[in-house]
Every structure is written in C-alpha cells, then in structure tokens.
Write a structure and sequence with these properties.
The structure is a single chain. The chain is built from 20 helices and no strands. With about 425 residues, the protein is an all-alpha fold. It folds into 2 domains: about 10-140 and about 160-195, Growth Hormone, Chain: A; about 220-420, Up-down Bundle (Growth Hormone, Chain: A), CATH 1.20.1250.20. Helix 11 (about 230-260) packs across helix 17 (about 365-380) and helix 17 (about 365-380) packs across helix 18 (about 380-400).
C-alpha cells in the first residue's frame, strides 16, 4: 500500500529518473536560498548605511553581467561539460555568499564591496543558466521533459512562497549576514548533488559537437536563432515581458500598494495569490500535455501579460489577488512550455547557445525595465504608468500568437508518444 501511495503522489519523472531526481533536489534548495537572499539583500544594504540608491545599485549589479556574458556562456556550455560549468558556478557563488555573510556579520561590509560581490555573483549565474537548460534533457527520457520542466518551475514557485518566510525568520534570528551564509550552504549542496550526478550512458556517449573557433561558434548560435522564426518571436516576447510587464510587479505594484491595497499586508496577499497560481500551473503541467506546446505557451503569455492591467485596474485587494492566481498559472505555463519547446526542437549541440539568447533578452533586460518604469512613473504617475506598460505588453503578447510558426510548431516525438500512451493511474487501494 505504501508503494501505491508513493506512485500516486510522486511524479513519474522523479521516481524513474534518478539523475533528474538528484538535480531537482539540489536546485530546490539552491532556488530557496536565492529567494531568501532576494528578500534579505535590501536589508543588508541598509544595514551598512546604504540608502535606496544603494539598494538599487547592488540589485542592478547582479543583472549587468548577463548582458556581457550570457552569449559567451552559451558557447562554452555547448563546447564543454555542462555539469562541470554548473559546479564551477555554484562554487563561485558559494564563496561570494560566504564572504558577504562574513563581512556583514563582522561589520566590515559596505556598499562598494556588496556591489563587487553582486557583479561576481551575477557573472557566475550567467554561466549556470544556459548550462542547466542544456543539461536537463540529458537527465530524462523525451517523455519526461515537460514534467521535468514543470518540476523545475515548482522549485521557483516553492521558493517564492517559502523563501520570504524563511528570510524573515533568518533576519530576526541571525541578521542579514547569517542569511547570506544560509544561501552559501545551499550552493554547496547544489554543487555536491551535481558532482554526484551520473548521466545515462546514452548521454555520456553522445558525440561532441564539432568545435570551431570561439567566434565562429558564437556566430553559429546567432544563425541557429535566426533560422527559427518561433524562437525569434519568443525572444521578442520575453524582452517585452521583462521590460513592460515585470515592472508592474517589482517596481510599480509596491508603490501603489499603500494607496490601493492597504500597504504591505495587502501586497503580500496579492503576491501570495500569484504564488498559489504558479504552484497550480506547475501541477497542471505534470498531467496536461498540449498537442501544440508553443501555441499553449503563447496563449498563456497573454494571460501573464495582463498583470499590469490587473494591478492598475482600481479593483480591491481580493479581486486583484483572485486574478493574480490565474496570472500565476499563465506565467508558469508560458515559461515551462517555452523551455520545453526549445529542448524538444533545438539540437543538443546548439541548445545552450540558443538558450543564452533567452537569458540575455529576459534577465539581462531587467534593469532596463526598472529604468523605463521609473521614468514613465515620474512623467505620468505610477497609476498611469502601470496601465500604459501593461497595455503595451499585452499587445506584444497578441502579436506573438499571430506568428504562424508559433501556432503550428508540433511537439517533439517523445512528447507525442507520452500523450498517446499516458502513464496508467495507480491501482485503487
């Protein structure tokens, strides 16, 4: 009876794919640590005498390296052992968070030091992301790819809900410095799980891509992107989502919360509702396999892009929270099915390079979105700014759905087979 209960609760990809199970465990803890740090970072800057400008400077410093390093990182991840790149990235981030925590605890930290550490952290992170996108398909069968990405999304959803709660407790108990040490520990665990990772024999024996000159490989990555109109369309969509929609959540939403949602408490309810929706979306994708994954992702992007209009609509806290549940589902479906489509259709030898453009146009554009939101808010006020940005983001989302290559892209063969022959349900007890 115990084994039947496990089969009914634990997804097949975790039961049957030991390599992915190990990767998932390490990343769950690592993402949780990152979400703790996201909450703690502003308090760390303030604790060393930095004001709001210092908080912005340190936060932006983490994302700037993506602009410079994302594309070279993709080339290296296609040329070298992705697992080793990820271990090296974890090791660097472990040291960075360890040093930051020690300096904060001993009173030797300052804003300039935290900026430098944030740049180093962001540089290491830029190498990790293209590598893990390329590594995931090597840890699962083709039929397990979508559930694997859904579970990766689940780590972010859990981290977004549990991370702030754990961060608040850690700040109260050990201060910002101790919280950074907690994050350092999660990177150590992630590195250990990667070192223990043993890929299936087929993945280990796969022939390496023919290596050209570094810049030739870089140009080949750009050509791979250009040859796929659906990739170009989604890269544009990711940029628009980052620049136009995300500021509604991270910049303008909190500004409006005091006026419209009763301050921090109301905003916490809204963000928690979004987290619940994200979790629901992850669980949905463990079972639902749309025949046209990219089309479903594009339609979900429309719902995800409504967030600025939802938050700026003038509705009360509870109606906005209810709509944010639906937005959370859409965001998860959008990102997970987009990444699954990349992994199903881009050859392994090119995958990290193509994925690096995704990280460049999304994560690398975060500072631009913050600047755009701040400038528009100064000109027209936060209420008008959030509606203008939200409407622009929604128009881009509709334009992406109109691209024929996006609507017509089929599933990979493994996903089709899984849809035809789904996993049988656990026998009744």
């Amino acid at each position: 009876m115990g084994s039947r209960a496990v089969r009914s609760v634990v997804p097949a990809v975790l039961r049957e794919e030991p390599a992915f199970r190990l990767l998932f465990t390490g990343q769950l803890l690592s993402v949780l640590g990152d979400r703790v740090t996201m909450l703690v970072l502003p308090f760390a800057v303030l604790s060393v005498g930095g004001g709001p400008a210092g908080v912005v400077l340190v936060s932006v410093a983490q994302f700037v390296p993506f602009v410079v390093l994302a594309l070279p990182a993709g080339v290296l991840a296609d040329r070298l052992d992705r697992r080793r790149i990820m271990v090296a990235s974890d090791a660097v981030r472990f040291v960075v968070q360890l040093v930051a925590g020690a300096l904060l605890l001993t009173g030797h930290a300052g804003v300039p030091v935290l900026v430098v550490l944030a740049v180093v952290f962001g540089a290491a992170d830029a190498f990790f992301q293209p590598a893990i996108t390329g590594l995931v398909p090597a840890t699962v069968s083709p039929a397990g790819l979508q559930p694997a990405n859904a579970l990766r999304g689940l780590t972010f959803s859990i981290g977004s809900i549990a991370g702030p709660a754990i961060g608040g407790v850690l700040i109260a108990l050990v201060g910002p410095g101790g919280s950074f040490l907690f994050d350092a520990l999660t990177f150590a665990v992630s590195a250990v799980t990667l070192l223990l990772l043993r890929l299936p024999r087929a993945a280990q024996d796969a022939p390496a891509a023919e290596r050209q000159h570094f810049f030739a490989d870089l140009a080949a990555g750009a050509a791979s992107v250009r040859s796929r109109p659906w990739v170009v369309a989604f890269l544009a969509a990711g940029s628009a989502y980052t620049v136009l929609v995300l500021p509604a959540i991270f910049v303008l939403g909190p500004v409006l919360s005091g006026e419209r949602f009763g301050g921090a408490t109301g905003w916490a309810v809204i963000t928690a509702a979004f987290g619940v929706g994200s979790l629901a979306g992850d669980l949905l994708l463990l079972r639902w396999r749309p025949r046209f994954a990219l089309r479903a992702s594009a339609l979900a992007l429309i719902g995800a892009s409504c967030q600025g209009l939802i938050i700026g609509s003038g509705l009360g806290t509870l109606p906005v929270a209810a709509l944010e549940v639906l937005a959370g589902v859409c965001v998860t479906v959008y990102f997970s099915l987009w990444e699954t489509s990349l992994q199903e259709h881009v050859p392994d030898a090119e995958l990290s390079r193509v994925a690096s453009y995704d990280y460049l146009t999304s994560t690398g554009a975060i500072p631009l979105g913050s600047v755009a939101a701040g400038a528009l808010s100064a000109l027209a006020g936060p209420g008008a700014a959030i509606l203008v940005l939200g409407a622009a983001g929604l128009l881009v989302a509709f334009a992406v759905v109109a691209v024929p290559a996006v609507r017509r892209l089929p599933r990979g063969s493994g996903a089709v087979e899984a849809a035809i022959r789904p996993e049988p349900p656990a026998p009744a007890v």
